[in-house]
Design goal:
The protein is an alpha/beta fold and about 220 residues long. Helix content is about 20%, strand content about 35%. It is built from 4 helices and 16 strands. Strands 4-11-10-7-6-14-13 form a 7-stranded mixed beta sheet, covered by helices on one side. The chain is globular and about 70 Å long. The protein starts with a helix and ends in a 5-residue tail after the last strand.
Length: about 220
Protein backbone atom coordinates (compact mmCIF):
# COMPACT_ATOMS: atom_id res chain seq x y z
CA UNK A 1 0.00 0.00 0.00
CA UNK A 2 2.80 2.46 0.82
CA UNK A 3 4.49 1.84 -2.55
CA UNK A 4 1.20 2.27 -4.40
CA UNK A 5 0.44 5.51 -2.58
CA UNK A 6 3.93 6.81 -3.37
CA UNK A 7 3.70 6.19 -7.13
CA UNK A 8 -0.06 6.67 -7.35
CA UNK A 9 -0.72 3.35 -9.08
CA UNK A 10 -0.19 -0.43 -8.70
CA UNK A 11 3.49 -1.35 -8.61
CA UNK A 12 5.84 -4.18 -9.46
CA UNK A 13 8.52 -4.73 -6.83
CA UNK A 14 11.89 -6.49 -6.87
CA UNK A 15 13.39 -7.47 -3.54
CA UNK A 16 16.03 -9.68 -1.95
CA UNK A 17 16.25 -11.42 1.44
CA UNK A 18 19.42 -10.96 3.50
CA UNK A 19 20.40 -13.43 6.24
CA UNK A 20 22.95 -12.31 8.85
CA UNK A 21 25.33 -14.50 10.84
CA UNK A 22 22.74 -14.99 13.55
CA UNK A 23 20.25 -16.34 11.04
CA UNK A 24 17.95 -13.33 11.16
CA UNK A 25 16.28 -12.38 7.90
CA UNK A 26 15.93 -8.90 6.48
CA UNK A 27 13.74 -7.95 3.51
CA UNK A 28 15.60 -5.57 1.19
CA UNK A 29 13.65 -3.76 -1.56
CA UNK A 30 15.79 -3.44 -4.71
CA UNK A 31 13.53 -1.44 -7.01
CA UNK A 32 9.91 -0.79 -7.83
CA UNK A 33 8.17 0.51 -10.90
CA UNK A 34 4.59 1.27 -11.95
CA UNK A 35 2.52 -1.61 -13.23
CA UNK A 36 0.23 -1.00 -16.18
CA UNK A 37 -3.27 -2.40 -15.69
CA UNK A 38 -4.71 -3.39 -19.08
CA UNK A 39 -8.13 -1.91 -19.85
CA UNK A 40 -10.29 -2.52 -22.88
CA UNK A 41 -9.86 -4.98 -25.74
CA UNK A 42 -6.58 -4.94 -27.68
CA UNK A 43 -5.60 -8.56 -28.14
CA UNK A 44 -2.59 -9.21 -30.40
CA UNK A 45 -1.67 -12.64 -31.72
CA UNK A 46 2.06 -13.48 -32.13
CA UNK A 47 1.24 -14.28 -35.75
CA UNK A 48 0.39 -10.61 -36.38
CA UNK A 49 3.99 -9.62 -35.70
CA UNK A 50 5.02 -11.51 -38.84
CA UNK A 51 2.37 -10.08 -41.17
CA UNK A 52 2.96 -7.89 -44.19
CA UNK A 53 2.81 -4.18 -43.48
CA UNK A 54 4.46 -4.23 -40.07
CA UNK A 55 6.81 -1.31 -39.37
CA UNK A 56 7.62 -2.22 -35.74
CA UNK A 57 7.00 -5.51 -33.96
CA UNK A 58 7.76 -5.99 -30.28
CA UNK A 59 7.54 -9.04 -28.03
CA UNK A 60 8.26 -6.88 -24.98
CA UNK A 61 5.77 -4.01 -25.00
CA UNK A 62 4.11 -1.92 -22.32
CA UNK A 63 0.78 -0.17 -22.62
CA UNK A 64 -2.63 -1.31 -23.71
CA UNK A 65 -4.98 -0.08 -26.37
CA UNK A 66 -5.02 1.39 -29.85
CA UNK A 67 -3.70 4.64 -31.34
CA UNK A 68 -4.83 5.83 -34.76
CA UNK A 69 -3.95 9.55 -34.71
CA UNK A 70 -0.20 9.43 -35.41
CA UNK A 71 1.28 10.27 -38.82
CA UNK A 72 4.78 11.31 -37.74
CA UNK A 73 7.85 9.16 -37.09
CA UNK A 74 11.18 10.42 -35.76
CA UNK A 75 14.08 7.98 -35.73
CA UNK A 76 17.81 7.90 -35.19
CA UNK A 77 19.52 7.43 -38.54
CA UNK A 78 21.45 4.11 -38.50
CA UNK A 79 24.12 5.52 -40.82
CA UNK A 80 24.80 8.53 -38.57
CA UNK A 81 24.46 6.88 -35.18
CA UNK A 82 27.50 7.11 -32.89
CA UNK A 83 27.06 6.16 -29.24
CA UNK A 84 30.03 8.37 -28.42
CA UNK A 85 27.90 11.36 -29.49
CA UNK A 86 24.97 10.41 -27.24
CA UNK A 87 24.88 13.79 -25.46
CA UNK A 88 24.76 15.66 -28.78
CA UNK A 89 22.04 13.30 -29.97
CA UNK A 90 20.00 14.03 -26.82
CA UNK A 91 20.10 17.75 -27.57
CA UNK A 92 18.90 17.18 -31.12
CA UNK A 93 16.11 14.94 -29.82
CA UNK A 94 15.05 17.80 -27.55
CA UNK A 95 14.96 20.21 -30.49
CA UNK A 96 12.76 17.89 -32.55
CA UNK A 97 10.55 17.11 -29.55
CA UNK A 98 9.95 20.81 -28.84
CA UNK A 99 8.67 21.35 -32.36
CA UNK A 100 6.09 18.58 -31.86
CA UNK A 101 5.08 19.95 -28.47
CA UNK A 102 4.58 23.40 -29.95
CA UNK A 103 2.37 21.94 -32.66
CA UNK A 104 0.62 19.57 -30.23
CA UNK A 105 1.43 16.73 -32.63
CA UNK A 106 1.97 13.18 -31.31
CA UNK A 107 4.74 11.12 -32.86
CA UNK A 108 6.60 7.80 -32.75
CA UNK A 109 10.20 7.99 -31.50
CA UNK A 110 12.58 5.18 -32.52
CA UNK A 111 16.13 4.93 -31.21
CA UNK A 112 18.95 2.60 -30.26
CA UNK A 113 19.67 1.29 -26.78
CA UNK A 114 17.94 2.79 -23.77
CA UNK A 115 16.09 6.08 -23.88
CA UNK A 116 16.85 8.07 -20.73
CA UNK A 117 19.85 5.94 -19.80
CA UNK A 118 22.07 7.23 -16.99
CA UNK A 119 24.93 5.45 -18.75
CA UNK A 120 25.61 7.29 -22.04
CA UNK A 121 27.20 4.14 -23.49
CA UNK A 122 23.93 2.17 -23.20
CA UNK A 123 21.65 4.65 -24.95
CA UNK A 124 20.59 8.27 -25.28
CA UNK A 125 20.70 10.13 -21.92
CA UNK A 126 17.57 12.23 -22.40
CA UNK A 127 15.37 13.40 -19.55
CA UNK A 128 11.59 13.12 -19.72
CA UNK A 129 11.11 16.69 -20.91
CA UNK A 130 13.26 15.97 -23.97
CA UNK A 131 10.95 13.18 -25.22
CA UNK A 132 7.64 14.16 -23.61
CA UNK A 133 5.92 14.80 -26.93
CA UNK A 134 6.31 11.19 -28.08
CA UNK A 135 3.20 9.01 -27.97
CA UNK A 136 5.13 5.81 -28.69
CA UNK A 137 8.76 5.16 -27.69
CA UNK A 138 10.73 2.35 -29.33
CA UNK A 139 14.10 0.96 -28.20
CA UNK A 140 15.93 -1.03 -30.89
CA UNK A 141 19.30 -2.84 -31.05
CA UNK A 142 22.22 -1.53 -33.12
CA UNK A 143 25.29 -3.66 -33.87
CA UNK A 144 26.73 -4.55 -30.44
CA UNK A 145 24.43 -2.12 -28.61
CA UNK A 146 21.67 -4.37 -27.30
CA UNK A 147 21.14 -3.65 -23.58
CA UNK A 148 18.26 -4.95 -21.49
CA UNK A 149 15.04 -2.87 -21.59
CA UNK A 150 14.86 0.34 -19.60
CA UNK A 151 14.31 -0.27 -15.89
CA UNK A 152 13.90 3.20 -14.37
CA UNK A 153 10.85 3.60 -12.13
CA UNK A 154 10.49 7.32 -12.96
CA UNK A 155 10.74 6.57 -16.68
CA UNK A 156 7.95 3.99 -16.56
CA UNK A 157 5.85 6.12 -14.22
CA UNK A 158 5.87 8.89 -16.84
CA UNK A 159 4.99 6.45 -19.62
CA UNK A 160 2.01 5.13 -17.68
CA UNK A 161 0.87 8.53 -16.47
CA UNK A 162 0.80 10.00 -19.99
CA UNK A 163 -0.45 6.87 -21.79
CA UNK A 164 2.73 6.42 -23.82
CA UNK A 165 3.31 3.02 -25.43
CA UNK A 166 6.76 1.48 -24.93
CA UNK A 167 8.08 -1.10 -27.44
CA UNK A 168 11.37 -2.92 -26.83
CA UNK A 169 12.77 -4.57 -29.97
CA UNK A 170 15.16 -7.47 -29.55
CA UNK A 171 17.66 -8.68 -32.13
CA UNK A 172 15.96 -12.05 -32.34
CA UNK A 173 12.53 -13.65 -32.58
CA UNK A 174 9.68 -11.80 -34.27
CA UNK A 175 10.75 -8.35 -33.03
CA UNK A 176 11.93 -5.93 -35.70
CA UNK A 177 11.95 -2.45 -37.16
CA UNK A 178 11.57 -2.10 -40.93
CA UNK A 179 14.54 0.23 -41.40
CA UNK A 180 14.63 -0.34 -45.15
CA UNK A 181 11.13 1.09 -45.58
CA UNK A 182 11.87 4.07 -43.33
CA UNK A 183 15.02 4.98 -45.23
CA UNK A 184 13.10 5.04 -48.51
CA UNK A 185 10.56 7.60 -47.29
CA UNK A 186 10.92 11.28 -48.05
CA UNK A 187 12.10 13.25 -45.03
CA UNK A 188 10.03 16.20 -43.85
CA UNK A 189 12.97 17.25 -41.69
CA UNK A 190 16.46 15.89 -41.24
CA UNK A 191 19.12 16.70 -38.68
CA UNK A 192 22.61 15.42 -38.05
CA UNK A 193 21.37 12.33 -36.21
CA UNK A 194 17.57 12.32 -36.59
CA UNK A 195 15.14 12.00 -39.44
CA UNK A 196 11.45 12.97 -39.44
CA UNK A 197 9.01 11.20 -41.76
CA UNK A 198 5.39 12.38 -42.11
CA UNK A 199 2.93 9.92 -43.62
CA UNK A 200 -0.15 10.72 -45.68
CA UNK A 201 -2.37 8.62 -43.41
CA UNK A 202 -2.24 7.56 -39.75
CA UNK A 203 -0.41 4.51 -38.48
CA UNK A 204 -2.21 1.62 -36.84
CA UNK A 205 -0.59 1.21 -33.42
CA UNK A 206 -1.66 -1.44 -30.92
CA UNK A 207 -0.34 -2.66 -27.59
CA UNK A 208 -1.49 -5.77 -25.74
CA UNK A 209 -0.61 -5.33 -22.07
CA UNK A 210 -1.66 -8.88 -21.19
CA UNK A 211 0.55 -10.59 -23.78
CA UNK A 212 3.31 -7.94 -23.72
CA UNK A 213 3.09 -7.54 -27.50
CA UNK A 214 3.12 -4.39 -29.59
CA UNK A 215 2.78 -3.69 -33.30
CA UNK A 216 2.88 -0.65 -35.60
CA UNK A 217 1.33 -1.32 -38.99
CA UNK A 218 1.48 0.53 -42.29
CA UNK A 219 -1.03 -1.57 -44.18
CA UNK A 220 -0.36 -1.72 -47.91
CA UNK A 221 2.22 1.07 -47.84
CA UNK A 222 5.17 -1.25 -47.12
Amino acid sequence: PLAERTLGCPVEMEFAVDRNEEGKLRLCPVQMRPMAIPKGASKISPVELQEHGVLVASENAMGHGFKSDIEDIVYLKPGAFDIGKSHAIALEVQEFNNSFLNGKTPYVLIGFGRWGSSDRWLGIPVNWGQVSGASVIVEAPFLNLNPDPSQGAHFFHNLISFGVFYFYVRDKGNSRVNWEWLEKQKAKREGTYLRHVRLDQPLSIRADGLAGLGVIKLGDRV
